[in-house]
Amino acid sequence: MEEHLSAFLRYLSSEKGCSENTTAAYRNDLSQFMAFLLGSSGDELTEWAQVDRDRIIAYVIALKEREYAPSTVARKVAALKSFFRFLVACGQLTTDPTLALDSPRVRKHLPQPLSARDVARLLDAPPHTAAPKALRDRALLELLYASGMRVSEVVGLRVSDVDLVAGVVRCPGRGGRERLIPIDAHACQSLAAYIEHGRPQLLRDPDDPALFLNHRGQQLTRQGLWLIIKAYAGAAQIEGEVTPHTLRHSFAAHKLNGGTDLRQLQQLLGHANLSTTQVYTQIAETPSEAV
Length: 291
Prior knowledge:
- The chain has 291 residues and is mainly α.
- The chain has helices spanning 2-14, 20-41, 53-65, 70-89, 116-123, 132-147, 151-155, 185-202, 222-235, 244-257, 262-269, 274-278, and strands at 162-163, 168-172, 178-182.
- Strand 1 (162-163) and strand 2 form a beta hairpin.
- The protein is elongated, with a radius of gyration of 22 Å.
- The protein starts with a helix and ends in a 13-residue tail after the last helix.
């Protein structure tokens, strides 16, 4: 059974072009499902053909009894559906036991962008000093808002991905889709100061290509970036939860308010489907809040 799970994960990575984070999420969800099956069935379960709809329903009920959020249960059910479709497609199964399985209803929340005023307060939160951490954090915040990039995309940037003369960042996005994102003068200035004066002080390995480094001289992690945002949002006294994705939402909403075409915004955000981008048209801001 384990070999089929491994084959599915390779399929997601090599053929579907899923990111490492997405593949890891599938691995965690499906490994949890396997652990449930083996724990409830013991040695009698040796192949996926033995997994019927009743076993899957029992798993979903167990998730609900453990009080997982509906969105989490829905994600785990979606992972199961994808996996069993794969098993049918590659001839391991003749029927899909998840075919008539309903996913929990998940209430969709509209993205919550920051106002232009709150964005300005957040971008101004890092200390105005020449300390390497301050230079890094200012460049990091400016770039997040100026580009609308995802967390994984930002921490994965290399120095060579930034062209300050042209004012663009090369972003290797999901599914191998690379895009060039223009950034404004403020972001360029902050990045230039960090690359010239801040990064060399953080750097430990001269051959390390990573753009954003932590205090140990290693590539900044997604978790580290989240903590940085959280700290400066608190320092700026911004109400509500502020995450790196909040800046992505703010970028998108403010771009639309500023007259950016929806198709162009789709390309900037790296969305595969226009419907994903269209959600931002439902966010109303007053003209005074737009940037």
